[in-house]
Amino acid sequence: MLLSRRGSSDYEMHHSIFVDTRSSWVGSWTAGEPVAVMHMGAGTGSGRGMDDGTASDSVWAYTDVFPVGDWLQLTFTVRAGRICGFVNGAHSGDCSATLQDSDRRMGTGEPLEVGGEESYTNHPLWSMASLAYYDRALSEDEVAFNHGASDCLELGVRCP
User: Fold this and answer.
1) Is the dihedral of CA 6, 49, 70, 130 positive or negative?
2) How confident is the model at residue 115, as a pLDDT?
3) Partners of 103 in the beta sheet?
4) Which helix (H) or strand (E) holds 145?
5) Helices vs. strands in the chain: H and E counts, helices first
6) What is the rounded average pLDDT of the residues 53-76?
7) Where are the beta strands (DSSP E) in the chain?
8) Which residues are CB-neighbours of 47 under 8 A, at least 6 positions away?
9) What is d(CA 152, CA 67) in angstroms, rounded to the nearest whole number?
10) Which of 35-44, 46-55, 122-131 holds the top average pLDDT?
11) Is the pTM for the entire model greater than 0.85?
C-alpha cells in the first residue's frame, strides 16, 4: 500500500493507492506485471470499477503496466467522481466509473496512511521519494508540469 485512508476494511476506505501485480480483481493484464491502482470505496462492498457508463458505490482505476526498476511518477486525480491515472505525467489506463458524491466517504476522520498497513504485509515493497496530496483535482497540464519538476528534484535531470 502506497497511500490509504481506510476504516476496518477495504470496502470502508475513502481511498487507497497501491501497486498490484495480481491481475485477478481489478483488470486483465499479465500476472506478475505491475500496475498502479487507486480504489475508492463507499462502504457497501460492491462495485464495478472501470468506466462502464454507470455509477457505482466502489470504484477503481489502474494504469497501464510499467517497467520494474525504473523511477517513475504516479499520479491519480479524482474529478467529478471519476479516478484517472497518470504515469510520468501522461494519462495511463482507463478512468474509473463514476462514484456519486453521496457515496463517497468524506469527513470520516480516518487517518491518512503512507507506505503500508499491517494487513498488507504480503505485497511487495515499493520506494517513494516524495508525496504531494492536493485538496483539488489537478489538470492534465499540472500533472505534466509536476512530472517535469519531479524529474529535476528527484533525478537532477531536465532542470531549468
Assistant:
1) negative
2) 60
3) none
4) helix 140-150
5) 1, 10
6) 79
7) 3-5, 15-20, 35-40, 55-56, 59-62, 74-79, 82-87, 90-91, 98-99, 112-114
8) 41, 56, 57, 58, 59, 60, 97
9) 21
10) 35-44
11) no
